[in-house]
Amino acid sequence: MSWSPSRSLYRRLPVLCLVLLACAPAPVPDGVPLPPGRVYPVHTDVVATTFWVGEIFDPQAADGSQELSAYDSHWLKSYGGCDGVVVDGRCETERRTVANGFFPTVMTPRENPFYLDLPFDDLNDPDAFAMRADVVPWAGDPGYAGRADDRRFSYMKNRWVQLTKDGVTCFGQVQDAGPGQYADHVYVFGADDARPQNARYNGAGMDVSPALNGCLGFADLNGQDDRVSWRFVDDVGVPDGPWKTVVTTSPVQQ
Predict the structure, then answer these.
(1) What span is annotated as the signal peptide, if there is one (predicted)?
(2) What is the mean pLDDT of each run of 10 residues along the chain (254 residues)?
(3) For residue 87, is it within any domain?
(4) What is the CATH number of the domain that holds 223?
(5) Is residue 2 included in any domain, yes or no?
(6) DSSP string for 44-93
(7) Residue 33 forms part of a structural domain
(8) Residue 251 forms part of a structural domain
(9) Is 239:233 a contact under the CB 8 Å cutoff?
(10) Radius of gyration of the chain (CA)
(11) Domain span at residue 228?
């Protein structure tokens, strides 16, 4: 079943929306109608780990800091700060609950707290950049067509993904690339339910935000054993829910 908020949460959403100033879905580029929502392939039983804006996973690794993302070199500032709680100067994650729509408890995000990454960095990885117009299903859609050589534009940033775990369905937007691999087009876009190329973190095929961790009911706050099924979904196929309280529409920030 899809996630269903309590009535009390719905009564509070208008107030929350006024505070966050961003309750509407992203506008259609240049007024051009989107094509009918596609039905994308489902990827099943995929290990999903948890990451969060402001996390320093490994200060020695090129991809070990979530103060920046593949598509936003100022991600921490763009988001509005640590997506969690600061403990002894470190940005740590926290348990999220339905009581406030799985939002962080001590800060107000400027962007959608329902975010994730997938192992296809179409902007910075040379192999992914070279093939993106051929493998990304929406590369020919209005707003995307003709931008294959534009190094300031990503086909992945802000795209919607549907995630399901144990009968619960939630939605999030792509805001980073990983884990471990950055040009895994066979897994990300393939129709044969291929396994991720990544071998680290128990073979994880994506990282999800604390909001998605809570919404999906992960057993681990920051582990590598929770599994999900997922697929891309076009804007027109995203239902109302807490993931639409703030919708990220920002472009690439270099």
Answers:
(1) 1-28
(2) 40 35 36 68 98 76 73 96 94 96 97 98 98 98 96 98 97 97 98 97 97 98 97 95 98 95
(3) yes
(4) 2.40.40.10
(5) no
(6) EEEEEEE--TT-BS-TTSTT-BTTS-SSBTTHHHHHTS-SSEEETTEEE-
(7) no
(8) no
(9) no
(10) 17
(11) 7-26+41-244
